[in-house]
């Protein structure tokens, strides 16, 4: 093996001392090149983003027959959940390669037995919970709402765990092929906070991120705690998340904002979260490009 070395020379000694050779030698023994990939490297390398939408159907949202309800069934204009679903969903749709969303509900009594479920398909097809585009989710939501009874409690952990199981299967492929994003629309009151924290800590080790959209004007303190921006989120046992995977967006702050402002907030942390996960696992892009500029999530062409 060719050894590379450099002499350390002191110009003053070289002038003063006739027999001066050097003040030491720097020898390079080992060299490793570690490439840091960008979000675009992974996307252009074939990594697909898969979105799951989860909608809060708990009684705290109000009776859908009442105009004060966040789920109010109004034939003339969209309710608060539909406004948030369409605004945020259309942004996310651009990054989902097959434009199909898994669409789930939680906290309602569902037919035929009207037992409470915390992770049911809103199209009532347990074998295939996917909807065609965000419009397909809207149609399933509108069809589902009159058939269910809003109930409770607001247990979020089962939905996180359900998506995490799929992400865990993906992790075992040891490839940067699919990354999962869970989009939760809720009025903000979480009943199973301890279990939710535990589920998020577990999910932080998987190819998964969570975007929570707060609907309505409730107290979103719980959601901000889960976001972890003010400190590191920990499980009830004190175990910290491996990486920050939760982004909270209060939709009321963006009702009159431009779609660009909403998009920037909703997807602000996703590129970093994707890169952090694959860097931690040391998974390169499946088909690395010669060069792609480092970039945050921009509008797809």
Automatic annotation (TrEMBL):
GO MF assignments: calcium-dependent phospholipid binding
Entries under InterPro entries matching the protein: Copine (IPR045052), Copine_C (IPR010734), VWF_A (IPR002035), vWFA_dom_sf (IPR036465)
Stated name of the protein: VWFA domain-containing protein
Residue stretches in coiled coil: none
Recorded superkingdom: Eukaryota
PANTHER family: COPINE, COPINE-7
GO biological process terms, semicolon-separated: cellular response to calcium ion
Residues covered by the VWFA domain: 50-270
A Gene Ontology term for the protein's cellular component: plasma membrane
Biological source species: Bambusicola thoracicus
